[in-house]
Write a structure and sequence with these properties.
This protein is α/β, with parallel strands linked by helices. It has two domains: 247 residues, Aldolase class I (TIM Barrel), CATH 3.20.20.70; 87 residues, no CATH class. The protein contains twelve helices and 13 strands. α2 packs parallel to α3 and α5 packs parallel to α7. The protein starts with a strand and ends with a helix. This is Probable nitronate monooxygenase.
Length: 351
């Protein structure tokens, strides 16, 4: 395998972090299985409490309760594994969720969908590892400089999420449609990180993710200089994935032309599987939100075409015709249900 990679105080046995997928796609089952196999398992905190009885009345309380429960269940699967949370900056009550992740004893927090500039202040005096998710050198430079100047802190690791990732994307629609040469951007980010490694006097591991679907693609990212890879969509069609079987079937049935760019209700571009729900959205035939679950900071229920929380919950529960199915660019390649062990061996065997 590649040189040793540390996530905070723990050493990864395999150079892979599983990407966080909300709502409810990467919970304890998937994250625990990845950690058990030697990777880093990531639980998505995004509306994680959607199955809790109090979710509709008090989503924040439900989410906090579920964060603790899911991490505990994942620990039972992988007692010595590396487990953490993906917490989006764009979430309402961001700091509350960050502090809960610390309280639960998570090993790390990865944070994107915005710039996690104040994250170090929220975890000061703790040993939890923190990592920003970045898509470009400019944002990386801003975070590194800010953390250093204000907090005298450097990331424990960094996740680069490329244009072939699923869900909300850190690129303009124009960039995504033009199929940018992202290898150059990765190289620029890596050069920048190496400068800050000298300042920190320690290694800052870098994960590269987005569209990594096979060993050849994994090897390519390692060749560019990545220390580990981040993989998400490939894990959806595993037995251990927490999504409903109908959700997984939608991936198995998807063809290349079914993977499309979409506009999120909050104005960000994303990537998803075309289905009747998206067709209704395009025609303006979906019902406007009747209730707000307070998930994202910059969401105005009076102005958006549909509630993204409701759409994602419908999908993960198995109503794939009336839900939103976020997906990476290579998601259509899935053709069978595998185990997490199978996927990791296929991606990393011999590395």
């Amino acid at each position: 395998m590649k040189s040793q990679v540390w996530i905070g105080k723990k050493r990864l046995k395999k150079p892979l972090i599983q990407g966080g997928m909300g709502i409810g796609v990467s919970l304890s089952g998937l994250a625990g299985a990845v950690a058990k196999e030697g990777g880093a398992g990531t639980i998505s905190a995004a509306q994680i409490g959607f199955l809790q009885p109090e979710f509709e009345q008090n989503p924040v309380l439900a989410n906090l309760k579920a964060m603790e429960e899911e991490l505990q269940k994942a620990r039972k699967i992988a007692p010595d594994g590396i487990l953490g949370f993906n917490i989006m900056v764009a979430m309402n009550h961001y700091e509350t969720y960050v502090r809960k992740a610390v309280e639960t004893g998570a090993d790390f927090i990865v944070s994107g969908a915005g710039l996690p500039l104040e994250l170090p202040a929220m975890v000061s005096d703790t040993d939890i590892a923190i990592a920003p998710i970045v898509s470009g050198a400019r944002a990386t430079a801003l975070i590194l400089k800010y953390w250093e100047k204000k907090y005298h802190r450097y990331p424990d690791f960094i996740v680069i999420e490329g244009p072939e990732a699923g869900g909300h994307l850190g690129f303009s629609r124009k960039q995504l449609e033009e199929k940018m040469d992202y290898d150059m951007e990765i190289s620029e980010i890596l050069k920048l990180v190496r400068v800050y490694e000298k300042k920190a006097e320690r290694k800052i591991p870098v994960a590269v993710g987005g569209g990594i679907c096979d060993k050849a693609r994994a090897e390519h990212e390692f060749m560019l200089g990545a220390d580990l890879i981040q993989v998400a969509s490939r894990f959806i069609t595993t037995k251990e994935c927490d999504a409903d079987s109908a959700y997984k079937d939608a991936y198995l049935k998807a063809q290349k032309e079914d993977i499309v760019l979409v506009s999120s209700p909050v104005g960000m571009p994303g990537r998803a599987i075309r289905n009747p729900f998206l067709e209704h959205v395009e025609k303006g035939e979906v019902q406007r939100p009747q209730k707000c679950f307070g998930c994202l900071k910059h969401c105005n229920p009076a102005e958006i075409p549909y509630c993204i929380t409701e759409a994602l919950i419908h999908a993960v529960k198995g109503d794939t015709e009336n839900g939103l199915l976020f997906c990476g660019a290579q998601g259509f390649l899935a053709n069978q249900i595998e185990t997490v062990q199978d996927v990791m061996e296929d991606l990393l065997g011999g590395l």
